[in-house]
């Protein structure tokens, strides 16, 4: 059964963050809050954990369209090819925030992503998610958890999330009620920014 860990976004408990990081380093899969919906994730450097997340989502690992959740933009060059000034300015305006940006992948992507030409980058405006990534030392993958409910596309109550996922993942983090709108996805690999999905993020940043 998964651990159910309560954290407060204003001041995430460092000891609990450390516990979560150790689970990630050992190949664990977590459900965690972001500034939009709750996400399912693992350490991007752990191939077995990535395969587990892909299996949970019912897709092949090489077909997985997962985003990288980062703490900030300081290590962007580890995963993304050099970008121009205009693109960087968009990122600076929007992040941290409820956006996923599709950018050209670099040659130094983790092994499981080597064949990917693009990568989705997220820097959520959520202290819990960013504290986990900062303590881990590298991004975690992120994919939204969906609900089979015909009305609500995403589950927002952490206790209901735990009830459903407790035998599937290793940790469910209670960071309060989540949002019911996913991030806005913007492709910055084309000549003009292309909105692939409108979500919580405003398009005024473009």
Keywords for this structure?
single chain, 5 helices, DHBP synthase, 20% strand, 206 residues, 10 strands, globular, alpha/beta
What does this structure look like?
This protein is of the alpha/beta class and 206 residues long. It has one domain: Alpha-Beta Complex (DHBP synthase). It has helices at 14-25, 47-57, 85-94, 127-136, 158-165; strands spanning 3-6, 30-32, 39-41, 67-69, 99-104, 118-122, 140-144, 171-174, 184-187, 194-197. A 10-stranded mixed β-sheet has the order 1-8-2-3-7-4-6-5-9-10, sandwiched between helices. Helix 1 (14-25) packs across helix 4.
Q: SSE layout and pairings?
A:
Layout: E1 3-6, H1 14-25, E2 30-32, E3 39-41, H2 47-57, E4 67-69, H3 85-94, E5 99-104, E6 118-122, H4 127-136, E7 140-144, H5 158-165, E8 171-174, E9 184-187, E10 194-197
Parallel strand pairs: 1-8, 2-8, 4-6, 5-9
Antiparallel strand pairs: 2-3, 3-7, 4-7, 5-6, 9-10
Helix pairs in contact: 1-4
Structural class: alpha/beta
**Distance separating the two termini:** 44 Å
Question: CATH homologous superfamily - what is it?
Answer: DHBP synthase
Proportion of strand residues = 15-25%
Work out the helix count.
Answer: 5
Unreliable residue runs:
none
> What is the level 1 CATH name?
Alpha Beta
- Can you give the helix content as a percent range? 10-25%
Instruction: Sketch the major β-sheet.
Output: 10 strands, mixed
Rounded mean pLDDT is: 92
Shape: globular
The sequence of SSEs as H and E is EHEEHEHEEHEHEEE
* CATH architecture heading: Alpha-Beta Complex
CATH topology category name: DHBP synthase
SS elements, strand count: 10
Please tell me the total number of domains.
Answer: 1
Radius of gyration: 16 Å
Strand order of the largest sheet: 1-8-2-3-7-4-6-5-9-10
